[in-house]
Amino acid sequence: MISRAICFTRRLWWLTCTVTTLIFLWGCAYSVINGDRINSRQTEKIATGIQGLRQLRFKQVVPLVVKSPDQAGAMMEADLMRDYTDNQLEADAVAGTLTGLYPSHLDLKAESLKLLKSEVAGFYDPHGKEMVLVEGGANVGVWNSAAQFMIQRDVTGEVVLAHELTHALQDQNFDLESSLDKVKDDDDRALALKSVAEGDATIAGFAYALGRMDDSTADALADNLKKLPQALAVEAPGTPEGLSAPLLFQYSEGVRFVAEAYRRGGWAGVDALYRNPPQSSHQIIHPALYFDSPVPQPRIELAGYDRIMRGWKKADDDTYGELLIRVILERNLGKQSKEVALASRWTADRMVILQDGRAVSVIWMLTFSDAQTAGRFAAVYQALLDRLLGGSTPHRVDTRANAVLVVIGPGVNYFGALAPAIWSASAIESGGVTARIGRPAVSAAQ
C-alpha cells in the first residue's frame, strides 16, 4: 500500500533519495561535499540563494551533517518503525497481493527499504531538524545530464542541496510534518500533500541551479521528468509497480501540479497549497478539479463488519485512491486496456485489513462518479479477481448505487450477513453531510 511502501510512512516525506537521485545526482558533487567534509561557504551560498528564489526565510539555522550510506539506511528503517510493526507491513503486503496491487510473496518492508537505500543521496530530517548528506557515490543521473546541457555547468550538488533546503523551508514555514500527521489515516490524501512538497522542492532546486524561475523553467522540468520511469527501471530493475508508481508520482505529477499553481499565482500561489492542500491523487492527476471546480472530497465511513466478524482484529486500514486503482488495472489488464479509464471516475474508497491468526481478510468499499461506472468496475474487477485468485482465495463483489463492496479472503464465509451489515452501517461524508448508501442493485459471486 502507498503509505506502507515507498511512501508507506508519512514521516518519509523528507527523503529525496530515490527519485531526486535519479533526476539530479546519484551522489553529491565535490563543490558541496568531499568525503565527510562539507564546503561551508558553498552551502551558505545555496541556503541564501534558495531563500531568495523561493521567497521564504529560515526561522532557524539548518545544520548539515554527513552520514554513511549504512547510517542513512538505519535512519530510514528506524523512521518507518516509529509508526508500524512488522505484522502491519506483512498484512499490508498480503492485502496488496490479494487486491492485485503487488506480486505474490512480496516482502514489503525489505523491498521498499532496498529501493530507498539503493539510491540515497541526501535528505532533510524533520525530527533532528537537520540536513543529511550521504557520503560516497558519483554517478550521474538522467536529469543531471539534461540540466548540465541547459545550464552548461556542474549543478549536481547545488540541485540536491537546494531541493532539500526547500524541504527545510517547508517544515519551518508551513509545519508540514504536523500537516502529514493530520492525514495519517488517509494515505491517498497524504500522497497528495507529499506531491505538493516534492513538486515544490523539485522545481525550486532546479530553478536555483538554472538561476531563474518562470513558466518555461517548470515546463522544461516537467518534460524531462517523463524519463523517470525508464531511469528507475535501469537503476532498480524489477521494482514492483505498486512501489514505484507512488514514488514517481510525487515528483512527476507533483511538479506538474505545483507548476500550475505557480502559473496562476507565483510562489504565493504555491504557498497557498499548504494552507488548502489537495485532498487526493485524483485532484493531483486532474488539476482542474482543485483549481477550477473544487468540491468537497467524499470520505467513506466503513463500518458494520466488526459485529459479524467477531474475533478478527483490524491490522490496518487504507485508501488506495485513483493512482493505485489505475496501477491495479494496468498490472492485471494491460496498460492499453480501455478499462483502465475506470480509475479516473473514482470518487472515494476505504479499505480495512483484518487478521485472525495468520489469516487475512480484505474489506474494501469504493465509490465512483455514477452507478453505471460502479457497475462496470464491479464486473471488471470480479473478472480480474477470478483470474488472479481463481478458486484458491474466496472473493465477492457487490454494488449498491454508485458504490462497490469487495470482500477477499475468509471474510467471504460471512458474506450473507456481512454485506448487509456493512451496507447498513457504512456512510459517505462530503462537505459535512453524511449520507447512507442506497438499496442493492447488483451482486456477483465467486
Description:
The chain is an alpha+beta fold. It folds into two domains: 290 residues, no CATH class; 147 residues, no CATH class. Helix content is 52%, strand content 16%. Strands 7-8-9-11-10-14 form a six-stranded antiparallel β-sheet, with helices on both faces. A hairpin with a 2-residue loop joins strand 1 and strand 2. Helix 2 crosses helix 9. The radius of gyration is 22 Å and the shape is globular. The N terminus and C terminus are likely disordered.
The general outline is globular
Largest sheet at a glance?
6 strands, antiparallel
- Give Rg in angstroms: 22 Å
What is the tally of helical segments?
Answer: 18
Beta-strand segment tally: 14
**Helical residues, percent:** 40-55%
- Strand ordering within the main sheet: 7-8-9-11-10-14
N/C terminus separation: 25 Å
Report the mean per-residue pLDDT as an integer: 85
The percent range for strand residues is 15-25%
Decide which structural class fits the backbone. Answer: alpha+beta
How many domains? The number is 2
Parts with pLDDT < 50 across at least 5 consecutive residues: 1-30, 137-152, 439-446
Which key terms come to mind for this protein?
single chain, 446 residues, alpha+beta, 2 domains, six-stranded antiparallel beta sheet, three-stranded mixed beta sheet, 18 helices, 14 strands, 16% strand, disordered N terminus, disordered C terminus
Secondary-structure map:
Blueprint (H helix, E strand, L loop, with lengths): L16 H8 L8 E2 L2 E2 L1 H15 L9 E4 L1 H15 L2 H14 L8 H12 L2 E4 L4 E5 L7 H10 L4 H19 L1 H7 L4 H24 L4 H10 L3 H8 L5 H35 L5 H5 L2 H4 L7 E3 L3 H4 L4 E6 L2 H13 L12 E11 L2 E10 L2 H19 L5 E6 L2 E6 L6 H11 L1 E4 L2 E4 L5 E4 L1
Parallel strand pairs: 3-5
Antiparallel strand pairs: 1-2, 4-5, 6-12, 7-8, 8-9, 9-11, 10-11, 10-14, 12-13
